[in-house]
């Protein structure tokens, strides 16, 4: 059987719903289950897909989750904040049950969720997936243009980043990164380039001591356990062809240290992968693009690439399970 992949529609006022239509037309080798409001998806794409059923093998179907309020392209409405989370919950639950072999997420709008849903602050897909799969630590990695960039910290204010980079957190992050590069991406002996936190990687302590006190000792301990790690390297020269040719992936210390380079090189074709989860999850490398919603001009390249990778990882997971 073809792998069954859950595709969330994301923010209904953004480009997600129409990107799902372009994805459905891409004729990928998988059963695609589009999760969102049936009328929204069909009307936005001028198409009709059957209702999802676990017993059928339709190439494209819809798992209906009702909107909280009518949605207008480009106009955010906090009344649909819970809808976005309900869509995400449906995909997570289906993956955890084994009903779906992977999930792919269209972009959501964090601000509207935090305005529309009371209680705990919503940081983003990555953190939400970790919490709802009972995973203590996950790693956010983006791939594109032959680059793989993982993050030691994700959606944090800059002032909180140094305290979040500890020996324990770095050890867990690098362990997950090495494991998934081996088992999901087929790299037998991953070599990981590790960025420093401070300019010039601290310049021997003159520009910060995190490299000396935390990063270097942690890398030394992990090297002694067999990991192939290079760094900490100054981030301003790490992303040069000569340096990148030395490794299979980069670990950046924070979101805007690593991702601007990757998005410059591959925007619209990049893929966000959450490592360390018990399920397979990929996503796009862009946001909701409210200015393009409803215009028909949105590029589905990143969503198609993310789905193709999810299918590939699902097949690899099948092969591993078959061997064991």
From TrEMBL:
At the top level, the lineage of the source is Bacteria
TM regions (residue ranges):
none
Q: How is the cofactor bound?
A: Binds 1 divalent metal cation per subunit. Can use ions such as Zn(2+), Mg(2+) or Co(2+).
Record's keyword annotation contains Cell inner membrane: no
Which proteins does it associate with, and in what oligomeric form? Homodimer.
Q: What does this protein do?
A: Catalyzes the NAD(P)-dependent oxidation of 4-(phosphooxy)-L-threonine (HTP) into 2-amino-3-oxo-4-(phosphooxy)butyric acid which spontaneously decarboxylates to form 3-amino-2-oxopropyl phosphate (AHAP).
Protein name (database record): 4-hydroxythreonine-4-phosphate dehydrogenase
Organism in which the protein naturally occurs: Amantichitinum ursilacus
Q: What is the lineage of its organism?
A: Bacteria, Pseudomonadati, Pseudomonadota, Betaproteobacteria, Neisseriales
- Gene (name only): pdxA1
